[in-house]
Design goal:
Layout lengths: L1 E8 L16 H13 L6 E2 L8 E10 L6 H11 L4 E9 L11 E10 L12 E3 L5 H9 L3 E4 L13 E12 L2 E8 L6 H13 L5 H10 L14 E7 L1
Parallel strand pairs: 3-10, 5-6
Antiparallel strand pairs: 1-3, 1-4, 2-3, 5-9, 5-10, 7-8, 8-9
Helix pairs in contact: 1-2, 3-4, 3-5
């Protein structure tokens, strides 16, 4: 039986999702829990390989198991043995051919900024602190330029091959003071693309760059032209769509 699951995790203490030889990862944590519950050696598939320190509330995984005690029981058993920073939110049966990465049609990420004169230590694990005022209207004008099919080489590198063309379906700023949220949805993303995009949009927010300058960076396909790649802890994989 192939099982599909939606997983949430706090990525702070993990060196990314994908299993590594000598570092803690979310994949290893999930596979260890699966082996403990099912008594099977299971290798999971995932919709995306989030970087070190990146969080998720909607990561999708799939795995094959001979488990026969019901999916609700499996979810409860996994959550009973998983550490507090990883949780299985939903489980369902999937077709034998289902692949969480290759079958996905879109992914949505959110970058969170805590924007206030004084930092809040309670938000430091999940948001980037920015003290200065930001021009939200200008940042949204620049973000609108991301919509559509573009070569995003200015903002990242492909995880495989050399294709840097992606289709962005949505790119929106939303203020819920003191937080700013940037949501971006695309068919796929380049390595560190979201963090680089937001770092460049902040340059617009600080009025060091205007929206037309942002367009020039996008069109240049020159990685050196983009703004800084922001810290990972403000980024979260929100949803994978099929």
């Amino acid at each position: 039986m192939r099982v599909q699951a939606v997983v949430a995790y706090d990525g702070t203490d993990y060196c990314g999702f994908q299993r590594q030889a000598n570092a803690p990862t979310v994949q290893e944590t999930l596979e260890t829990a699966l082996e403990q519950v099912t008594q099977e050696k299971i290798r999971i598939l995932a919709a995306g390989r989030t970087d070190s320190g990146v969080h998720a509330e909607g990561q999708v995984i799939a795995f094959d198991s001979s488990w026969r005690h019901g999916l609700d029981v499996l979810k409860r058993a996994l959550n009973a043995v998983l550490p507090d920073d990883v949780a299985v939110r939903r489980v369902s049966a999937a077709s034998a051919e289902f692949h969480p990465r290759f079958d996905a049609c879109a992914r949505r990420y959110r970058y969170t900024i805590y924007n206030a004169p004084v930092r809040n230590p309670l938000t430091r694990r999940y948001s980037l602190y920015v003290a200065d005022a930001l021009d939200m209207a200008a940042m949204q004008e620049a973000a609108d330029l991301l919509i559509g099919v573009h070569d995003f080489a200015s903002f990242g590198q492909p995880p495989q091959g050399n294709n840097t063309v992606r289709c962005v379906r949505g790119a929106d700023w939303n203020r819920q003071s003191p937080f700013l949220f940037f949501d971006i949805e695309a068919n796929a993303f380049l390595y560190r693309m979201v963090r680089s995009v937001v770092g460049t949009l902040l340059e617009v927010g600080w009025r060091r760059l205007d929206p037309e300058g942002f367009r020039g960076i996008l069109d240049s396909c020159d990685r050196s032209q983009a703004g800084p790649t922001l810290l990972a802890h403000g980024l979260c994989l929100i949803e994978v769509k099929y």
